[in-house]
Structures are given as C-alpha cells and as structure tokens.
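Let us begin with a simple case.
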Amino acid sequence: MIRRAAFAIFILAALGGLVIMLWPEPARRSAAETEFQLLDGRKLALAELRGRPVLVAFWATSCKPCVEELPDLIKLYKELHPKGFELIAVAMPYDRPLDVQNFVRERSVPYPVALDVEGKVVRAFDGVPYVPMAFLISPEGKIVYQQTGRLDIPKARRIIEAGLPKK
C-alpha cells in the first residue's frame, strides 16, 4: 500500500513538472503609449524608444530602497546605454518637482528623469502601488519583466542584453 501511494505521488509530481514545463508563457502585454515630461522640460514618448530595451523605473525621493538601488541603476545605465539601452526614472506624483530636481542634481543621475505630477504615467502602467517598481520593455514594446521592490539587477541585465541590437 505504501509503495502504491509513493508511486502515485511520484507520478503526480512528474506530471506537475511536465505541465509547468509545457505551459505556455503568459502573454506579454504591450506597454501603454505614454509620454514622459522630463526634468529638463523635454517630452519623450515611449514610442520614440521602440527598437531598444527600456527600463521604466518608478521611484520617490523619500523611498529608502529607491535611494539604495540608485548606484546599481546608474552603473547599469552607464554600461548599457552606449549599446542601445534606455532607462527612464519616473518620480511619483506626490514628489515635489523641486525635491526631485535637487535630488537628481545632488546625486548626478545620468539618465532621464520624468515628473508625473498628474499621475498620467502611473495610470498608463495600471497604477504603481509601491516604489520602487520597474517595468522592462522589449524593443518591440512589450513588458517582458516587472518587479516591485529593489530591482534584481543580474536578471534585468540578462533580459536587457538579450534585447540589445546585435553588432
């Protein structure tokens, strides 16, 4: 009796593993067409970045994990931007623009930073309940990875590098 039960458990586990391996990957949704209002006054449409991997990172000046991951994002940007990667940091609507501007200047943030005073970008990404929160968009405009909390840099790097233009 015990052998039959063990065998049945083994078969069920094997079938479960097979189902997981063969289950189709969830459909990747397209990133909403949105426009970023950058700190320097320029506007940048997400559609303009098609053809390259883009990381949209939501953050706040008062968010400790956001501040802690900043050096990693700067390093990632400096290494991969010359190869075709783009990173847009979006300050949360509750962040005062002057605070964002001072934060970015004091820390020499090299990538584009957007203000979202009216919350349009947050709504375009179906709401951002927590920060940091990041969306990695493929060159085709699909959200291929998203994460709440500090970004898993090694995983994000692998996905980004796979989407960079081949030389």
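The second case is a distinct protein. As before, the sequence precedes its structure tokens.
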Amino acid sequence: MNYEISLITTMAIAVMFALSLNLITGFCGQISLGHAAFQGVGAYAAAMLGQAGWSFLTTLPLAMLLAGFLGVIVGLTSLRVRADFLAITTMGVGFLFVGFVRQQDFFGGELGISSLPDHGLGRLGFMLLALLMCVLTAALSIYIQRSWMGRVFSGIAEDEDTMRVLGIDVPRYKLAAFAIGTSIAGLSGSFYAYHLNFIGPDSFGFVESITVLSMVVFGGIGSVPGVIIAAALLAVLPAWFQVIGDYKLLVYGGLLFLMMRFSPDGMAGLTKRFFKSNPMVRGKQA
C-alpha cells in the first residue's frame, strides 16, 4: 500500500510541475529551459523553513511566494528577448541556480539537505493533500485558459507584435504568466522535498527541466488534459520500467523529437485527429 501511495504522490507532484510550465510555455508561448530551478527554489525554501521549525502547511505559501517573486525577476530580465534567446536565458537561470546552491554550505552544498522534519500528515494525508493541490492547479489552469487572461496569453503566443498594436500591455501579461507558473512550480517543489525527504543541486538541473518540457510537449502544448495525462504517465514509467530510469534523458529527448517531428500538438492533437478520422465516431456524432 505504501508503494501505491508513494507512486500516486509522485504523479501528483509531476502533474503540478508540468501544469506550471504549461502556463508559461503552453498558454503564453514563453519557452523556458530552466523551469526546474523554480521548483528547486520552492523545495529549498520548504526544507530550510521546515528545519527552522516551521510547519509544512505554513511553508507552502511562503515557498510559492518566493518562487513567484524570483519568477517575476527572471521575467523582467527576459522581456526584451524572445524565442531562442528566451530559451537560452532561462536555461542560464537554471545553471545559475544549480551552481549557486552547490557552492553554498548554507544550502547543504553538494550533499544537499536531508532528514526533513515530519510533515505530520501521514503518508495517506500527504498524498491526499498533494492530490488536492493537483486538482486545484488543474482547475486554475482551465479557468485561466477560458478567461480573458487566457485569450491574451494565446494572442501573445500567436503574434506578440499584433497584440501590442491592439493596445495590450504585453510585458504585464508575460510577467503574470511567469509569476503564476513559477509559483506553482515552487508549490510542487515543497511537496517534492517532503516526499523524498532529500533535495540536492542535481535534483533541479537541466535534465529535470527537459523532463518537464517533455511532459508538456508529449501531452500537447497548451492542453490541460493532455499535460495531466502525459505528466502522470511519464512520472511513473521509470518506476515501472527500470531501463527507462537508467536512460531517462535519452527516452524523454526521443519523445520530444518524435512529437515535434510527427505531432507538434502532442497526444491531445493525436486524439482529436483519431476521433475525426474514425468513421464509427463520426457516425455516432451525426
């Protein structure tokens, strides 16, 4: 039973993390190759506050605020760059974070932080809370996507210059996307730290950023249901098939290549095309 609880918790954390990137990249078209750094900010904040005597539930909003604040700072420095240049900038942020925590004894250095205090919720309670946060994140994503903000995000992703001509404050909405997305990444990082009871610099490096990007691309960029399914699936595959865990970067990189080459809209696009091309489905709809 403990194995199943741990697996479900891992899936919930992965879904939160993937949805946080989907808000930035999927909704607003802002490519981020260093997103794991913001999960790391939340994880380190929760771990250090926990060791200082703060309760787990108290650390959650604080970790989100800190990750969101740093996300806004990164967003401010990235307002003048787009596309490939933005990807390189965010990738640099990821390397900077890993290098910084690795060199600071205050953050545990190379050894990281282990032996976090008990969160007091029990395995089942922790899993249920993670699932609740996962559901709330999904609901928020759907709400944003259907709102005026979501339509502006979509417009920025399609043609940023046109949105400026229409009088839309593009920088403001870009910062909003970074703030919301990185805050949720910080939330997932808090759960990650307490779930594994250990965090280190390598837990939030470039490989993890590529992993979460693979989840978003595989599910379908901008598709909330697709990203949820992809994140849950890719999160548990290494546990089910040990060989995938050994070659994680190779497998996820291959998925990225295949999806971008043959189905840029991911599983969501494949599903839509299947139902449209299936005669039986068309007959039922008629």
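The CA atoms of residues 80 and 246 lie 39 Å apart. The chain has 14 helices and two strands.
Keep these points in mind for the review questions at the end of the chapter.
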